[in-house]
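Retro notes
What went well: the complex prediction finally ran end to end.
Inputs used:
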Amino acid sequence: GAVVSQHPSRVICKSGTSVKIECRSLDFQATTMFWYRQFPKQSLMLMATSNEGSKATYEQGVEKDKFLINHASLTLSTLTVTSAHPEDSSFYICSARAVSNQPQHFGDGTRLSIL
Amino acid sequence: ILNVEQSPQSLHVQEGDSTNFTCSFPSSNFYALHWYRWETAKSPEALFVMTLNGDEKKKGRISATLNTKEGYSYLYIKGSQPEDSATYLCAFKVDSNYQLIWGAGTKLIIKP
């Protein structure tokens, strides 16, 4: 089946640090990748949708200068949390999709803790 | 505001018993309904993508039905096994270009 690799799986760092999370589709070309954030006991919240070679589309309330998304190739998207603060601590998970009527394939997620 | 509701929030089932839970979504402007299984320490795994009213899909002991007119989908698990323990998520889509709207999931725990 389709495999998506996300790393790192866990990050603990000081406030003010920028953190980059990578999402790779290993065995298929992902025309679209999604970045989600999940708060405890809540549903997945879509942060942004990125299509290869174009700017990401951010959901309302998500700061694009805070959460930088790059989707430079059909197999790699990155999310950079810039100048992270404790309130950015959360679980971030990516997914990738080849075509729009197919299911999304998820990475394992990244647990980000900002001290 | 589009909202997807899943019930119950959590469910304890004895091994061997069958069970089912519900995903409710707005009945207007339906495009697709997705079911995913999310086991602890793993990534969410797609189970079904359902698009047609009355559709029924099956994967082993797991099956799902869809009623787009009344806005619900049921997921059934027959003869529950410990490996079925997971959070089951549904997600709804209004059209091909729109994002998936996710439910909060039903956490299923199978008691041996």
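What we learned: The mean pLDDT of chain A is 92.
What to try next: split runs per interface for comparison.
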